[in-house]
Amino acid sequence: MRRIAPWSLCLALLVTASLSHAAAPTLTDSTTIERWRLANGLEVRTRDIRGAQGVAVTLAVRAGRGHDPAGLDGLADVLAELTWTGAVGPYPARTREDLASARPMGAEVNVNRSLARFTEIATPAQLPGVLAELSARLSGVTVTDASLRTAIAQVRREAGAHYFGPVADVLYWRGAALARDVDDAGLLRLAQLPGLNRLNTRDAAARLRTWYAPGSASLALAGDLKGVDVRALVEATFGKLAAAPGLPDTVTVALSGHRRTTSWKGLDAPVGVVVTEAPPLSDTLHAGFYLGMIITGASLSKNWGAPGPPLVSRFQYSLFDDPEIIRFYPPIAKDKTDPDLLAGALYEQLTAIGGQMVTVPIMERVRQSVAWLLGGPMSPDLRRGMARDPAALGTVASGMATRAIWQGDAFWDTYLERFMRLQIGHSFFYEHLTDATHQSTLLLTPAP
Fold it and tell me: Does the predicted TM-score (pTM) go above 0.85?
């Protein structure tokens, strides 16, 4: 239920009027983009993809983990869980099983450092009901002692799995925590979230009123919208919410380099991750870095080979969820216990890949295959696949909702333009990636 699709992760005029607007721009893939803002501050984005299976709806709120107060780690996740499952108005409390049954094409709640996102993929007939319920949930669910206990228990289960569960999860989450200077005691706090013991129903309800507001939220719809008056439908369901500013877009992340080896029960051989600091998103060359990482990730996966269990990937970089860090999972010999060998394996492969020439036609094909994630046109194959893959619609809607309130469309329009234009080599940032001060390595070794 937590994931709709792998998140790796249009140049249009921003429409600010509530009802009057210019003609919606149509991209070269025949999809149509619209953008506008309601009077209460809610940003709305749509992408009409004719022939798509269903409609993906994402509500994003600037209410991520980076807003957690000191000593209240896990608050953002609890508030998202309450919003996702709690009772509100005519809508009863719901479980993940309820959602799996009601939304067989997909549904998820996702919380990162900046945002909480709620996505449901519906049939056209379900769309009015989905919007009405999401509007009610944005206005504030009913928080009871029972619902708060349930939400905290769910969040703690997931946190425990992140840091002490499946090895792939442990490397992903502990590696990032290591780069953020979290020590062993801090890992326990992130896994157990003891500060949530102080959270009561009154405090949770008050936080929801402050954090969940139209002024810090966006709504995105992606799918076949033929015959749907989306503006009227959205205005009728979300326009009635009172204006409120919400939280600012001020989340920052500080990273540093560390090395750690940890013994782990159940392992037959060592596995590890190299977490590398990415250049700042504000860097005018970052779009070229993103393109280079797509090429690099594909090359590493080919050279290192498919990861065997317990690993699930050789490379991970999510532009919209974790833009500060890149994760690499190099192979390592069975008898090794030095985490520096992971960094060495990465350096060796980047040196080899950096010496390989990537032709202009190949680079252009990569651009065209990925531009849709940034709001650009889809490739013909992906465009045709939208009729069969509703999960891809979830990725489109999530990206639109994220861009609208994280950095903003003007930033991402410029980013897309740079992504399609910049002509820097895929290895331009390799010196940055292999700088030890930008790297944290975590090695898990078999417990004796």
Answer: yes
